[in-house]
Write a structure and sequence with these properties.
Layout (H helix, E strand, L loop, with lengths): L11 H5 L5 E5 L3 H6 L5 H22 L3 E8 L7 H24 L3 E5 L7 H14 L6 E8 L1 H17 L10 H5 L12 E4 L18 E4 L9 H12 L15
Parallel strand pairs: 1-2, 1-5, 2-4, 3-4, 5-6
Helix pairs in contact: 3-4, 4-5
This protein binds farnesyl diphosphate.
C-alpha cells in the first residue's frame, strides 16, 4: 500500500464487535413527551414505566445479560417536590406491581445508587426486590436509583482511604481493579452500549467509570415512545461500530 493510500479496512473489525452483553439506558424525555401533548409531566413518567417494561422484554429477547436503567439521579432531588414524590411513587408502584412478574421471568434485580437517606419503605422494597430475585439467572435488571457516577467514585475513594488507614490495603495496591471492586456495580460487567433517548447527547453523571469503552447511541425519540424496534435499532447501530479499546483496527496489508 502506498503511503498516501487510504487504509483499506477489513470486515474483520466489524465482525469482532460482538453482541452487547450489557446495555445501559438513560431514559430521557418524559417531560417533553408530556408537554408536547399538553399532559402533566407525571403522565410522561407513567408512560416511561411502560416503556421500561418494553425495554426489559426487548433486552430479554435480544439475549442481553445486563440491562441498566437510570431511573433517578442524585441530582433529581433538585426537581420540584411534587415531581420527586411522583418519581418515588412510580418506583414504589413498579416494584409492587412488577416484581412478581420479573421473578417469574427469571429476571435478577440489582439496585445501584445511594440507599442511605431514602424513605424507609423504599429501602425495604429495593431490598425485597434484590433478595427475592437473587438466585435468578436470566436477565439482570440493574436499576440505578439515587445514583450519581461522581458520587459513586468518591465513595469508592473513601472506602480505599479507609482500607489504607486500616492497613488492609497498601497505597501501591490502589489500581483500576481496586477502584472497580469498590463501586456499586461490583460483579456487573461494564456496559457495552449506552443508549440515551430524547436526542440529548450527554452522559449526565451516569456510569462514568464503567462506560470508559462503551459505545453510545443517541435516539431521536422520547423515552415514553421507546419500544422493541427502537431497542433493535440501537443494537444494529452498535453492531456497525468498530470497538478498538485504544488499540488498532486490523488493516489489509498491501
Ligand atoms: C428523564 O426525563 C427521566 C427521569 C428523570 C426519570 C426516569 C423515570 C422513568 C422512566 C419512570 C420511572 C421508573 C422507575 C423504575 C421509577 P425528564 O423528566 O428529564 O424529561 P425532560 O428532559 O423531557 O424534562
Amino acid at each position: 500500500m502506498l503511503p498516501n493510500d487510504p487504509p483499506r479496512w477489513t470486515i474483520e473489525a466489524a465482525e469482532t464487535t460482538s453482541e452487547p452483553s450489557h446495555v445501559a439506558i438513560i431514559m430521557d424525555g418524559n417531560g417533553r413527551w408530556a408537554a408536547s401533548r399538553g399532559l402533566p409531566r407525571v403522565e410522561g413518567h407513567r408512560r416511561g414505566v411502560e416503556a421500561l417494561r418494553r425495554a426489559v422484554e426487548a433486552a430479554g429477547k435480544a439475549g442481553v445479560q445486563y440491562l441498566t436503567v437510570y431511573s433517578f439521579s442524585s441530582e433529581n432531588w433538585s426537581r420540584p417536590q411534587d415531581e420527586v414524590m411522583d418519581l418515588l411513587n412510580l418506583l414504589r408502584m413498579f416494584v409492587r406491581r412488577d416484581l412478581a412478574e420479573l421473578h417469574r421471568s427469571n429476571v435478577r434485580v440489582r439496585i445501584i445508587g445511594e440507599r442511605s437517606g431514602l424513605p424507609g419503605d423504599i429501602e425495604a422494597l429495593l431490598e425485597e426486590a434484590e433478595t427475592l430475585t437473587r438466585r435468578n439467572d436470566g436477565l439482570t435488571l440493574v436499576v440505578a436509583f439515587n445514583y450519581g457516577g461522581r458520587q459513586e467514585i468518591a465513595s469508592a475513594a473513601r472506602r480505599i482511604a479507609e482500607d489504607v488507614a486500616a492497613g488492609v490495603l497498601k497505597p501501591e495496591e490502589v489500581d483500576v481493579a481496586a477502584v472497580t471492586a469498590r463501586l456499586h456495580t461490583t460483579s456487573i460487567p461494564d456496559p457495552d452500549l449506552v443508549i440515551r433517548t430524547s436526542g440529548e447527547r450527554r452522559i449526565s453523571n451516569f456510569l462514568l467509570w464503567q462506560s470508559a469503552y462503551a459505545e453510545y447511541v443517541f435516539l431521536p425519540i422520547h423515552w415514553p415512545d421507546f419500544d422493541g424496534a427502537a431497542f433493535d435499532a440501537a443494537i444494529t447501530e452498535f453492531r456497525a461500530r468498530d470497538r478498538r479499546y485504544g488499540g488498532r483496527t486490523a488493516q489489509v496489508s498491501a
